[in-house]
Amino acid sequence: MPPVAQEGNCLIYRGSNFLKQRLILACLSGKALKITQIRSEDESAPGLREYEISLIRLLDKITNGTRIELNPAGTSVMFTPGLLHGGQIHHDCCVQRGIGYYLDALIALGPFCKNSLHCTLRGVTNSKDSPSVDHIKGAALSLLKRFLLVDDGLDLRVVKRGVAPLGGGEIEFRCPVRKSLRAIQCQAQGMIKRIRGTVYACKVSPAMANRTVEAAKGCMLKFLPDVYIYTDQNRGKMSGNSPGFGICLLAETTDGVCFAADCSSNTPDESDTPAVPEDLGQEVAMRLLDEIYRGGCCDSAYQWLAALYMALGQKHVSKFLTGALSTYTVHFLQHLRDFFSITFKLENPDAEDEDEADDERGAQKVLMACVGIGYTNINKRVN
């Protein structure tokens, strides 16, 4: 959805959709952002949700000089970004969303800070509505490494697990800074060479984890012999505040592309029917196979991140092959045009011999191409 209006350097939008995208791009472009009519028609709970306010507070912590103005009802916000400062940050994330919701923003902004990011986030490490920490470690960080070239200082570590609804988990994220990102040509997906996974169990019987492993492994071994799934049993203080279990599977290709899928058990308030480990294992295996079928050079959950790094790269042509674009990515490309006036060329490669090669290549691919804007990290300290 295009901005409703533009007043000087300030973009004005309506509604709460894609709030995180808009805030991230505002921080990178330096443009002020005004969002009105945020859930204004919701009589029971109008305005910003607690997790959205928590995200704004996190962005305030990693920037210097950010001004935030909220109206009393919370249905309108004015966000004027400051300089990206980075450094050491501690943040207690709202448990309505997983830590992955907040990590996405840090991964997008981290390379452009003045100082290397060292963040400690506390909250829900594995939830259904956000990518899990394991998913991000496998899919998002492997994508970021392609653009950084040298990944010294890039790390994501799970200190404690914490599942919904009460959380209690903790992670540490470190990200180096760069003067600029390189333009890349990434059009080779490669063949799947191995599958790795992590099953976690917090405050539940260890048998739950083992049964989930057996079910997931049973599905994946039909396609590939190199399948290994680790179990992460947590007890006492290391297991967070709520009982639960889940699984994250990661498929690696010969060209270093990672596809990920995760699944977690129902929380007590979500459903009266408890999750069955065998069903969970099969479901995550099917999700991973669907991800592999979509294909491309990145996971479908992080197509938007590839588009962001391409747009901000050096003033050369970048090309990136992905599977079918998700709705989230389509809206992100529209927001990139609003904030940076950059457009992408999207085409279907090899469309003419689609019928012959369809069985080998999986779903129809999209080749994204753009010329980077040559974004330079003006915040980076000159040594």
TrEMBL record:
- Where the record annotates domain RNA 3'-terminal phosphate cyclase insert, the positions are 189-292
Can you give the residue ranges of the RNA 3'-terminal phosphate cyclase domain? 13-345
What Gene3D superfamilies does the entry give?
RNA 3'-terminal phosphate cyclase domain, RNA 3'-terminal phosphate cyclase, insert domain
Alphabetical keyword list: Nucleus, Ribosome biogenesis
Q: Which CDD domains match?
A: RNA_Cyclase_Class_I (cd00875)
Name the PROSITE patterns on file.
RTC (PS01287)
**Where is the protein found, in the record's own terms?**
Nucleus, Nucleolus
Pfam families for the chain: RTC, RTC_insert
What are the recorded GO MF terms, alphabetically?
RNA endonuclease activity
User: Which InterPro entries does this one have?
Assistant: RNA3'-term_phos_cycl_insert, RNA3'_phos_cyclase_dom, RNA3'_phos_cyclase_dom_sf, RNA3'_term_phos_cyc, RNA3'_term_phos_cyc_type_2, RNA3'_term_phos_cycl-like_CS, RNA3'P_cycl/enolpyr_Trfase_a/b, RPTC_insert
PANTHER family, per the entry: RNA 3' TERMINAL PHOSPHATE CYCLASE, RNA 3'-TERMINAL PHOSPHATE CYCLASE-LIKE PROTEIN
The protein's matches in NCBIfam families, at most eight in alphabetical order, are given as:
18S_RNA_Rcl1p
| Protein name as it appears in the record | Probable RNA 3'-terminal phosphate cyclase-like protein
Which organism was this protein described from?
Drosophila madeirensis
